[in-house]
Amino acid sequence: MARPFAEQTQRAVDQEVARLLREAEATASSLLRDHRAALDRLVAALKEHETIDGAALGPIVGERDGAAVSPS
Fold first, then answer.
1. Which parts of the sequence belong to the Peptidase M41 domain (predicted)?
2. Neighbouring-strand partners of residue 68
3. Among 21, 49, 58, 62, which is 20 to 30 Å from 3 by CA?
């Protein structure tokens, strides 16, 4: 089946997709590291209660007035 674009274009698209995926992975890893303490508190609360509603989630992860508190 013939492609409607050149191999060079496909290579450029593949490289950009790979770059975007690497960037997204780095961002996700950074967010998980930066908010590890909140994640650990959430895990402990879920182990104890199995479910948590939105009202209980904010204090667990350190939110105040709808905004997350920056990690120390």
1. 3-56
2. 63
3. 21
Sequence ranges of the domains in the chain: 9-68
Joined tokens for residue 52: 């948590």
User: How many whole angstroms separate alpha carbon 58 and alpha carbon 27?
Assistant: 22
What is the chain's alpha carbon radius of gyration, rounded to the nearest angstrom? 20
Place of tokens 């992860």: 61
In the chain, which ranges are E strands? 63-64, 67-68
Q: pTM to 2 decimals?
A: 0.63
How far is the C-alpha of 59 from the C-alpha of 12, rounded, in Å? 45
**pLDDT tens-digit series, residues 46-70:** 999 989 888 888 898 887 654 555 5
The Cβ of residue 57 has, within 10 Å, a number of other Cβ atoms equal to 13
